[in-house]
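cache lookup: miss for this entity combination. No prior model stored, computing from scratch. Input as submitted by user K.M.:
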Amino acid sequence: MNIKVYAPNDFPSYLPKLNALYDDLFSHGKGFRSQLIQKISGHLALTTDQVHLLAQTIEFVHNASLLHDDLIDRSHLRREKTAAWLKYTPEYAVLAGDYLLARVMVNLSKYGNLQLIQLTAEIISDLLEGEWIQDSLIEDWDVSIQQLDRVHNLKTASLFKWCMRAPFIAAENYDEELHKILLELGSLMGILFQRSDDLLDFNIRNYEGKAVLGDLKSGYMNSFAAFLTHDLEERKRAQFRQAQTIEDVYKVLGEDFFFERLKQFDSHNEKVISLFEHNLNLLEKRLEPSAVSLIGDLKSLPHILYWRKV
Amino acid sequence: METVPAKHRYITIRRESPDHDLYLTGRFSKSELAIPVTLLEGTPSTDNTTFQIYERDQIKRPALPLVLLQLMRFDLIGLTLLPALVVYMFVGGTYLSIGILIFSLACVHAATFAFNDYFDHMQGRDRLSEVSGSRVIQEGYLRAHEVFKIALLFSAIASAGAVYFAMQEPRILIFALLGFALFAVGTLYSQLGFKGSGIADLAVLIGLGPLFTSAVEYSLSGQMTSFIFYIGLVYGLLSLLYVQSKSLVTSMVDHQAGVRTLAVRVGFDRMKKFMLVELVIMIGIAIKLEPVLSFSFGLFLVGLLWLARQVRKLPSPVSSRTQSLAGHILIAHALWSLSLLFHYALALDL
C-alpha cells in the first residue's frame, strides 16, 4: 500500500505550492513507521481503511516534525533534496507542518475514536516538548547520555510508542497492562533507533552513505559523541569538537580508543535489546491467541533498528 | 559498575506477589542480585517492577569503606560538618565535646541519606532519575536491606551522641527533638507527601541553617548569639539552594511522574528567580555582618555573584550547566566556611 498518497481533496488545490511541497517531502522517505503500523495491524484484523488512517496519521505527524526540525536546525537537505524551508520559504515550511497536524486532527475526529485522538495529541505534545528542550542542548558539549535519552524518549520514541499502541486502540483493545508493555517497547525501540542514527553520524554501519559529523558540526553532541567523550580531558574534548572529518576524530581520539568505545556502546545497546525481548515475552502473555503471531514479527525489529540488519 | 559480559536476564514481578519485596530488598538470593531497571517513562509502575538479574561476582564492588562513603554521601558531608566546625571555632568548647558532636553529626548525615536511599528504592523513585541518591543499590554494591541496617546503625550511634549532650545540658533535648523532627522530614518527606508543599525546603533552610548552628553553639557554650544565627542563615540558604538546584535537574522527570516539587509547581524560569532572590538575601546578610567580617567576606561575595550569573544562564533541566550547578553551590558553601575561618584567623592575628 502506498500510504504517502493522499486524496486530492485532502489539501485544498487553491493553496499555491502546498501539494508540490508535500510531494517533495513524502517522496524518498522509507516509511518505516507506516510499515510498522501495517505489520502490527495485520495481526489485529484491522480493516484497510483503519490501516490507511493509522499509517497516514503517523506519516503526517512524522513529516510535520521533519518540516519544523529542518527549519529549526537550518538543515539544507532532507532526503537528498533541498529542505522545504529553503526551497520554498520558512513561513511555508512552518505552515505546511502545522497543516499536516491539523489534517491529522480532522481525520481522527471524523474516525471518532476518542482514545486514539487523545493518544495522538499526547504524542504530538511530547514531540514538541522534546524539540523544545533539545534546542537548549545546542553547543552543550558536556551533556550526558542519560539526559539525551530523556530528550529522545520524548522526541524519537514518541512516534514508536504511538505505532505500538494505536493499532490496539483502533482494535478497541484498551487493556491497561498491555498498553504499559507497548509503551515500554516503543520507548526501547525509540532509543535503539536514535542511537543507531547517532552512530551513522560517525560512519558506523552507514550503508546508505549519509554525510558524517553533521550533528557535531551543528553544535550538537549526540548520544554516541557524549558516550565517546564523557571522561576525556578538556583539551581532547575541545579538539574533538573541532573535527571536520571522521579521520580528524580518529586522529584526536586514537582509532583503537574509538573502536573500543564503540564496542562498549554496542554492549550497552545489547542490554536494551535484551530488555526489549523480555518485554516481548510479557506482551505474548497479554495477547489474544489470534494475535500471538505478532511476536514473531516484532522479534527482529530491534536488530533491524540498531544493527541495521534486514 | 563494571560487569562481565553475559546474557542479560530480566524478570518482571507484580507488586502483590510475595516475591516482589524479596527481590526489591535483595533477600531473594545470596548469590544473585536483582537491580530494578531505570525508567524512561515518567511514572513508576504501581503494578510491577522489572529487575535485571546479576550473578554476585558479575559486580566488581569497590572496597567496603569506599562504598560506605558513597552511601553516606561523603561529597555532601560539608553541609553538615562545616557549620558545626565553624561554630566551634567561634565559641570554643572541649575537644571531647566537639569530637562527639562531629562524630554524631556525621552519623546523622549518613543515616539520613541511607534511609533516603532505602525508601526511594522501595517506592521506585530512584528509578525515575539517575542523579538521585548515592546509587549504591542501583550499582549493585549493597542490597536494600543492608542499606536499611546500616542506616539503623548510624542512627543508634548518633542517638548515643545526643544522650551524651543531653546529660551535659538537658535543655539540649529541645534541639535534639527539633533535629529529630527535621531528620524525619528530611528522610520521609516524600512518603509524608511533603514534596512540593515547601515544608521540606523550610526544613532544609532551618535544619541545616540557624537552628543547626544555634543548637551547636548552645550545646558547646550554653549560649545563643545573633552572630551565629546569621551565619547559620547563610548556611541554610546555601543548603536550600543546593536542594533546589537538584530539583531543577529532576523537574522534567518529576513533572512527567506527577511529583509536584516547588520547581514543578512554579516552573523552571520562576524557580531560577527564587534562587536569585535567595542569593540576594545571602549577600544582604553578609553585608549586615560586614563590621565583623569586614575583609573575608569579599571572596565569598564574588562567589555568590558568580553563582547568580550561572543561575541566570541556566537553559533547561537537561543541560549540563544545570547538572553542574549543585557542585558549584557546594563550593560556595565551603567558601563561606573558608571566609569565616580566614576572618577568625585574622582576628587572632595568625
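stored under new cache key. The beta strands of chain A are 77-78, 81-82.
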